[in-house]
Each structure stands twice: as structure tokens, then as C-alpha cells.
Amino acid sequence: MNIIHRWYCNSKGWAKGVHGAMLPGVVGETDLGDSLLEVGPGPGVTTDWFHTRVPRMTAVEIDHKLAEKLKTRMAGTNVTVVEGDATAMTLPDDSFSAAVSFTMLHHVPSRALQDKLLAEVCRVLRPGALFIGSDSLPSLRWNLFHLFDTRVPVDPNTFGARLEAAGFTDCKVNVWGNSGFNWRARKPA
After folding, report:
1. 132 lies in which domain range?
2. How many CA atoms lie within 13 A of 129 on its CB side?
3. Residue at 189 is within a domain
4. How far is CA 172 from CA 9, 121, 163, in A?
5. Could you tell me the CATH number of the domain that includes residue 52?
6. Tens-level pLDDT at each residue, the chain (189 residues)
7. Which residues contact 72 (CB under 8 A, 6 or more apart)?
8. Does a structural domain hold residue 46?
9. What pTM, to 2 d.p., does this model score?
10. Which residues partner with 82 through β-bridges?
11. 106 contacts: CB under 8 Å, gap ≥ 6
């Protein structure tokens, strides 16, 4: 992420919107079980919200600096931060009761790698577990924030089929006007 994007995603304004509207609106009171996987926490704004709602949480972050900062900040909590590539996780099969990924999938550098990430999430979830997430849709503002960033937009119109191809069922995609979308999918029981 570029410096402006990093600053914004770690700002109090972003945290207020994420904690006050986005996460409650997308996740609500959903039972996430006992062991949550977060894919792509970045600076950990979403991690802050989720870790108080589950007994154990694992956050997989590919960016070394972001992973190290999050490890330091989450030391002594119920969060384990794993620095690694979510398209090739070293985590065991059927490990997690739920998985989440918020506003990061467009940073995965190709559609093929995005699909590999989806399949990996499915692999590490327990049968019947939920995968919940969201992503942004391109706009002028989105493009400005992503100057010189990796950005591969995700089409919400085809995303349900991509989740199914990765092994999920009960895939639901909800578009929010022209700013973003969220999804819920379940690993088959």
C-alpha cells in the first residue's frame, strides 16, 4: 500500500467507520465460534473489533512491517499474528470456526491468486464454518487512494460463483450502491 493508503487505513476516522458501521452491518451478532481466522488485517483496525468477540484469533498478514507491528500490539492477547501469504497458508486443514477478510482482496495481485486465497480459506475452515468479508468497488476516490498500489478489483457480480468454485456453498453477495460489497459463504458440512 502507498503511504497515503497506509495512513488512512490506520486513522481514527477509518476505525470509527469500520467499528461503528461496516463491521456491525456486515457481521452483526453472528456467532464466529471459538477460533477465528482473519485474512489480511493490515494495521489491525478490524482485528481490534474481532478479537473481543472470540476466544482465539489468528491473523495472517503478508506485509512484514504490518505483521511485526500487529504482533507487537497484540502481544499478550488472544491473537496470534502469522506473517505469511494467505494463498499458501501453512495452517492445518479444518482449523477455524470462521474466517473474515475485510477490504483487502483487491490487494491480491491477480484474479488467479485471489481464487487461490479463497480456496485456502475454505481448506482451513472446519466443515459448516462461515467466511464473511467485504471489498471496495473502484471509483475516482478509490483509484486516487490506490495510486501505485497493487489493485485488482473484484467484480461482485461474479464473486459468488468464484466462492463456489473455491469450495463454498450458501454464497450470498450484497452490493452497497457503488462503494463496495460484502459476502457470506459456508464451507460444506
Report:
1. 3-18+31-98+105-181
2. 23
3. no
4. 26, 16, 9
5. 3.40.50.150
6. 666 666 666 668 766 777 677 888 889 999 999 999 999 999 999 999 999 999 999 999 999 999 999 999 999 999 999 999 999 999 999 999 999 999 899 999 999 999 999 999 999 999 999 999 999 998 777 767 667 778 899 999 999 999 999 999 999 999 998 889 999 999 999
7. none
8. yes
9. 0.92
10. 60
11. 135, 136, 146, 151, 152, 153, 154
Beta-carbon contacts of 158 under 8 Å, excluding residues fewer than 6 positions away, are none
Contact 131, 80 (CB under 8 A): no
**Domain total of the chain:** 1
φ, ψ for residue 169, nearest 5 deg: -125, 180
Residue 23 grid coordinates: 463491521
Burial 41-58 (b: 16+ CB within 10 A, else e): bbbbbbbbbbbeebeebb
DSSP 106: G
Is 186 part of any domain? no
On whether residue 24 sits in a domain, the answer given is: no
Beta bridge partners of residue 9, listed in sequence order = none
